[in-house]
Amino acid sequence: MIEVHDLHKHFGGFHAVDGATLTIEKGSITGLIGPNGAGKTTLFNVIAGVLPPTSGRVIMDGEDITGLPPHELFHKGLLRTFQIAHEFSSMSCRENLMMVPSGQSGETLWNTWFGRKRIADEERALRAKADEVLEFLTIEHLADHKAGQVSGGQKKLLELGRTMMVDAKIVFLDEVGAGVNRTLLYTISDTIKRLNEERGYTFVVIEHDMDFIDMLCNPVICMAEGHVLAEGTLAEIKANPEVIEAYLGTGLKNKDKVGA
Ligand SMILES: Nc1ncnc2c1ncn2[C@@H]1O[C@H](COP(=O)(O)OP(=O)(O)OP(=O)(O)O)[C@@H](O)[C@H]1O
């Protein structure tokens, strides 16, 4: 469980996150919605240690994790997915997965000289794990394809796959469905559900696509102007006058997105 207490993130005089308080229940797939500029990504980045908060607290399973750097949160099982970095795009999908776990013996010179067998064993285990992940994602046929050459949706699956290389507990997904065709969107949503049901992952999903939120998320939290405006099922959120006002208030561009 993650508890966020009165979190603030200011950029100069601008309050991107302005007193956000929310709880993410263990085992949930929580949706985070809100008009453009509501502070969703900034909130993610503060929770995931990418940005330091101005003030406030983030508690994970009773432990204060406020401001911890991403690699420490990573070891605690809290991950934020990132797009496959350009430098990794010429590596195969399998190699991209094998790159994820840190602290491999092969990383130190000492081990390069004295631990060849151990390195070979670890590499075999990593390779087997990567292949198991590719199979779970039903993209085992892409194992030897360059990551930069697979489709946008398949790249998203690979991003999810990277979280599976390190037994993640809670995964933050920022617009994982953006620019993905409908069929792959169903595959991604199905994969998230399976990871949630079969492997106990908790997810927090930022998404503008309300169909995707509807398929996947309960509860849904709506942010506006840096704080939480409403929480409930998507149907409850859509019927909330403050939510409708927040979407309308940002101009016609966002009006249809909440479908209200
Ligand atoms: N590094 C930064 N410096 C200054 N302002 C920033 C910075 N990052 C974000 N902001 C501002 O903070 C506000 C919230 O941005 P954020 O990206 O968190 O919103 P969002 O809800 O994720 O929006 P969207 O749905 O459009 O992605 C925006 O007005 C944005 O311009």
CATH topology: Rossmann fold
Indicate the CATH architecture.
Answer: 3-Layer(aba) Sandwich
Q: How many strands?
A: 10
Biggest sheet, spatial arrangement of strands = 6-7-8-3-9-10
Order of helices and strands: EEEHEEHEHHHHEHEHEEHHH
Low-confidence stretches: 251-257
- Distance, first to last CA: 30 Å
Heteromolecules bound:
adenosine-5'-triphosphate
Strand content: 15-25%
CATH hierarchy class name: Alpha Beta
Major sheet characteristics: 6 strands, mixed
The count of helical stretches stands at 11
Walk me through what this model shows:
The protein has 260 residues and is an alpha/beta fold. It has helices at 40-47, 70-75, 93-98, 109-114, 116-136, 152-164, 182-199, 210-216, 234-239, 241-249, 252-255; strands at residues 2-11, 14-24, 29-33, 55-60, 63-64, 78-80, 170-174, 202-206, 220-224, 227-232. The longest helix has 21 residues, at 116-136. The chain starts with a strand and ends in a 5-residue tail after the last helix. It binds adenosine-5'-triphosphate. Residues 2-250 form the ABC transporter domain. One of its GO terms (molecular function) is ATP binding. It comes from Lentibacter algarum.
